[in-house]
Amino acid sequence: MAWPFAGDWQGKTSGCLQLISLTGFALSLVRCTSAKQAFWAGWWFATAWLVASTWWLYISMHNYGGLPALLAALAVFLLAAGLSLIYATASWIYHRLCAQNACVMQRALAFSAVWLLAELVRGTLWTGFPWAAAGYAHVDSMLREWAPWVGVYGLSAISAGLAMWGAACWTKKGVTPLRWRDLGGWPGLLVVGVMGVTWGTSPLQQPPPQALRAKPALTVTLLQGNVPQDLKFGAGVSMALHDYQEALLHNRADLIVTPETAVPLLPELLPDGYWAILQQRYAQGQQAALVGLPMRTRDGEGRLRYTNSALALFPGQDNAMYRYDKHHLVPFGEFVPPMFRWFVDLMHIPLGDFSRGAVSQPPLLWHGERIAPNVCYEDLFGEELAQSFANPATSPTVMVNLSNIAWFGDTVAIDQHLNISRMRTLELGRPMLRATNTGATAIINAQGVVTHRLPSGVQGALTAQVQGVDGPPTPYARWVSTWGLWPLAVWAALVLCALAWRLHCSSSRK
User: Distance from CA of residue 285 to its chain's centroid?
Assistant: First the structure.
């Protein structure tokens, strides 16, 4: 997802390296002599991949959560090892289907299908943990052209198919020449043709309509407080309140955005007059502020509900406000999974029991833009953000992510999260503004390009003009907002069923 080492490549993706590593695994899978061997090959590969991609979870659990080092390291390994069982099962299924004489295209389609199902299961099971999905490595590669059609999971499937194609063509004598049989006949040729047409007609290759480029730009300022995580809910509260209030009072941009929980206290616990001063500041004029903070309300039954929210202050009657409540919560950080209370109690993480907002909430209407907030971890779930595109007339023109991943230190997690946001812009065809506590505070255009960025680990404000996009939704946004991810799952299931039927027919003839 992001190159972790210092140098010119730091933070960048490499679709080429991803394909090389996956091709190496596919080659080992082709050479497995039993389904059991394939199972363990898949488990070891996925475990190494996921540990290498999410090792920084150790920092949040040990450095900030107070979990003993050995237990924190074990938790990271067990998470990766548990999730890897999904890929191990996929490898087992692949071997069962393709252990007999299957052509290159059939092997490629089978591996693409089982890998896609594994990614979908990991991304949705128990609220999902799709971090480091294979498709994110291709946010800068040639495969990115398919993102507006099939999204990150579709890119994962395409990369898996290409990897197995290369592995299946490899023999002891080298790469074999392509034959008609290797294409699988007319069905295989149809697959290649569809991929070629969709790549050539990708929305990313089409310039935006002139009317969209002529739309007035929005001047935005994204604040990066750089509040140390170990002080954020303690000694650093007064510093954060002062710094963010000063920035909100004196900035002159059309829209000012703070990070997630920039104001780390409930409104009723703020110092006297703090919130009233901000409301008065934005009650008049032509500016708005989107502020991240926790909120407390009572539900219809009188019970208190706590939410991780974003409040927008803007001119209007009675100090008008807009509110967005985070929908997709972080396990162990914002809610406690069943049977894991004992694990959470071992750590000292505040604000650990939030309620969910609706999956699709109205956008903030400001300066002719429809601004759709999402909070931190939510931008991993493009299928949920796409729900706001069900009605093109009210779909967002700009997306805004408020984040705080200081929990994971100054690590590769910062650049990984930036690339996740970039993938959402490719899928949905809308720019993304990112206001974060320690990084990466950035502006990403609708083509997935980072146009402006603050250095990580510093306090600052990023000011730039942003062009909202009010055009037709991407193909991905259209079908996902209607059917969710089911079309991908159905396609994979049909491919596997067709291959199983073929093998059954072949066995019957023998």
Answer: 36
Successive 10-residue mean pLDDT values, the chain, 510 residues: 65 89 95 95 98 95 91 96 98 88 86 98 95 96 97 98 90 55 67 87 74 72 93 85 96 97 92 93 92 88 88 78 93 78 69 83 94 96 97 95 94 96 97 96 96 96 94 94 97 93 67
- Residues marked active site are found at 260, 326, 376
CA-to-CA separations, 455 to 150, 175, 323, 410, in angstroms, rounded: 32, 45, 29, 11
478 within a domain of the structure (yes/no): no
pTM, two decimal places: 0.94
For residue 359, give the CATH number of its domain.
Answer: 3.60.110.10
In this structure, the answer to whether residues 239 and 384 fall within a common structural domain is yes
Are residues 190 and 220 both part of a single domain? no
How far, CA to CA in Å, does 196 sit from each of 18, 146, 183, 200, 213?
21, 10, 15, 6, 29
Please report how many Cα atoms fall inside a 13 Å half-sphere around the Cα of residue 59, on the Cβ side: 14
Stretch (H or E) spanning 25: helix 15-30
